[in-house]
Amino acid sequence: MRTSVSEKTVEVDEVTAALNNNASAVLAVSRAVEGTLGPKGLDTMMVDRLGEVVVTNSGVAILEKMEISHPAARMVLDAAKAQYIQVGDGTTTATVMAAAILKEGVSQIVKGVPVSRLLEGIEKAANLGIQILEEKCKIPVTDLGDPLLFQVAVTAGRGDQKIAQMICQAALQLGKDKLLSPSFKFPDVILSRAGAGDQLIEGVVLSKGRVSSLMPLKISPGTILLLEDSLAPEEVENESLHTETGFKKSLELKQRFLENLQKILSLGVNVIFTTGGIDPEAEEILVHSRIFAVRRITSRDFKEISNHTMAKSLKRSGLNRPIESLLPFLGKAKTVLEMEETGLVVVSGGAGKPSATLLVGANTEQVTGEKERKARDAASSVQTGFQYGVVPGGGASELCCVRFLESRRAEFNGMSSYGLDCVIQGLKQPFFQMTANAGFNPLEKTEEIIRLQSKHNLNSLSLDFETGESVDMLEKKVVDPLKVKIFALKTASEVAQAILRINRVVKMRDHGQDS
What is the mean predicted confidence (pLDDT) over 136-162? Predict the structure, then answer.
């Protein structure tokens, strides 16, 4: 069957329309966050339909709270979230990179470049860019006291030097082993509370208070029981409870529970943490015995207390053991107290692994929330920087990539070189936007810095966003985590490729609709 020219034209128009529509949606998302980039980036105010206000400079916070319905824009949002989960920063960079790669890609396709060759070039260029970052820009960090980590924290914390200092102090308290552990997430040590002052607390801090205000405010020293269960009698099934045997069994279990409470007192336990509830009768006994108890703590806090105090987890049935066999399950801490001003519980001076908590706060919920986001971003960047090394910041590393990618253009066959152009545009975009946000001509400054990097063979050269003059980012101590840059380029290229593969958008029928 022969296809007419007009039919082909219609098909090409449909493909172009889909590409342009998707690109426009992604560019709209990029514009929502690009104004926050760089030292001169500004905050964004977000307002929901109920009037709740969030003021933030965090790209991921903006993206998460935006009302996004377009499928291509949702793909960018999901990619940005994945970036944040993996490395804790770089979501804005990844978003503006993806939009720039996509915009250039659509332009090339409209000009007649086959999509398959374009995608081939984008993938190859992105992989080469990652290789260049590792070989030409990486600076290893082997000591938690390295001043570069403080600079990483300042950059990720949007210039907040006080928070950066406390993050670095917390890192030193926690130690190398903990920060290098794949299971440990440094941002988890951040806790926020409106009305609280910023302070670094040595120990585990729980966002819960004592079970009863009649319990002591402070225990020192603490002998700790960790119950991964409720502190309550074991239960009989409801059906059995209405029988004589079941009722008798219930009384036996209650009696055994009261005996177990006496065991706890005999062991000298004066602090109890449970993941479940606490029976009212048990609460009375604990209050009378001046025992400090906190119930329904999270699994993360439970694990942290265990590591810090060396207390071992018990189920309530475990209390049936002989009293001497329970001693190895108990933990030790110098102090357990409830902070009067915040109602938070602090466990410090444990016999086990060191622990630290950074408490941040301000007079309002909005400012407290933004302060917490800064601290979490700074903590993520410090941990990632320590694990994988750092690179010159201020857009220097991306422009270094551009230079070396250009020098390897001959490795791209035929039309795949247009994919290289897409990645080059993506790599230029973060510096371009930071320059624009600082009030300078981004076209002029981008080409100027690339030329000066080549002339002086200095990969760390970038722009002083205050003066508009070229400056060595390493001399200025402006650095970013290597892993953040790698993931941003990888994420941006992958999401751009995924969207460029789409040549039609088809609405699915509702799941409830009859077939």
Answer: 92
Token pair 């794949």 in the structure block, residue: 182
Kind and range of the H or E run holding 47: strand 44-47
Distance of CA 113 to the CA centre of its chain: 38
More confident residue, 313 or 52: 313
Q: Are strands 218-219 and 204-206 parallel, antiparallel or unpaired?
A: unpaired
HEC states along 301-361? HHHHHHHHHCCCEECHHHHHCCHHHHHHHCEEEEEEEECCCCCCEEEEEECCCCCEEEEEC
Rounded Cα–Cα distance for residues 211 and 277 (Å): 10
The predicted structure's pLDDT at residue 179: 94
391 three-state secondary structure:
strand
The C-alpha atoms of residue 182 and residue 193 are separated, in whole angstroms, by 28
Question: Which residue, chain included where needed, has tokens 């690009």?
Answer: 34
SS3 letters across 417-483: HHHHHHHHHHHHHHHHHHHHHCCCCHHHHHHHHHHHHHHHCCCCEEECCCCCCEEECCCCCCEEEHH
Separation between Cα atoms, residue 408 and residue 349, nearest integer Å:
56
Distance CA(463)–CA(481), nearest Å, equals 19
**Cβ-based neighbour number of residue 493 at 10 Å:** 27
The β-bridge partners of 356 are 202
Cis amide leading into 221 (omega within 30): yes
Structural domains in the chain? 5-139+390-500 (1.10.560.10), 204-353 (3.50.7.10)
Within 13 A of 474's CA, how many CA atoms are on the CB side? 11
Please compute, for residue 253, the number of CA atoms within 13 A of its CA located in the half-sphere on the CB side. Answer: 16
With a CB cutoff of 8 Å and minimum separation 6, the contacts of 221 are 332, 333, 334, 335, 349
Rounded-to-10 torsion of CA 214, 220, 223, 224: 60
**Residue 120 CA to its chain's centroid (Å):** 31
**Whether the predicted pLDDT of 356 surpasses 80:** yes
- Contact yes or no for 360/190 (Cβ under 8 A): yes
**Residues constituting the chain:** 515
- Facing residues of 45 across strands? 55
Contacts of 313 (CB under 8 A, 6+ apart): 226, 227, 228, 302, 306, 329
Q: What is the mean pLDDT of the chain?
A: 88
The pLDDT assigned to 244 comes to 65
Q: How far is CA 111 from CA 12, 17, 105, 418, 504, in A?
A: 12, 14, 10, 11, 18
Find the Cα–Cα–Cα–Cα dihedral 415, 416, 417, 419, rounded to 10°: 120
DSSP for residue 17: H
Which residues lie across from 360 on neighbouring strands?
A: 192
The span from the CA of 29 to the CA of 143, in Å, is: 38
What is the C-alpha to C-alpha distance for residues 431 and 446, in angstroms, rounded to an integer?
A: 7
- Identity of the residue numbered 373: R
The 190-192 sheet, strands edge to edge: 190-192, 356-360, 199-202
